[in-house]
């Protein structure tokens, strides 16, 4: 049975397809790297390069988020994940920064995967909208990432 409803799924958006291509390239690049130290250093360089490519407001926020996470949760290893700066524990992504421009959203997002230990009862936040990273926001991010890996 066919439908003329205009709300039917039309497939992935261009941004979603680009993110999937980014992820495939990230996996290939990781497989080519040598030692664990080489992989870690190259992964951090990749994250910093991706942040440097971002538009001004997203780049400024991503730089601050990166600085807070690497300083306050050093057990998290920077890596790219679907073209986004992400931070992993034992190879599994715990949190990530999604720029507003990535999916043409009105705000950037600090997201947490199910690996993050943020559980609070039967419902808790797994993503946070960011419009600016102030000193107060940095304190909140620090607390969240510390809790996520505790």
Description:
The protein is α+β, with helices and mostly antiparallel strands and 150 residues long. The protein has four helices and five strands. The mean pLDDT is 92.
Task: Name the descriptors.
5 strands; 150 residues; 18% strand; five-stranded antiparallel sheet; alpha+beta
- Oligomeric form of this entry? single chain
Order of strands across the biggest sheet? 1-2-3-4-5
Instruction: List SSEs in N-to-C order.
Output: HHHEEEEEH
Shape field: globular
**Radius of gyration based on Cα positions:** 17 Å
- Termini separation comes to 52 Å
Strand content: 15-25%
Strand elements, count: 5
Structural class: alpha+beta
**Number of helices, counting only DSSP H or I runs of 4 residues or more:** 4
Mean pLDDT over all positions: 92
Which bin fits the share of residues in helices? Answer: 40-55%
Described by strand count, sense and barrel closure, the largest sheet is: 5 strands, antiparallel
| Low-confidence blocks of residues | none
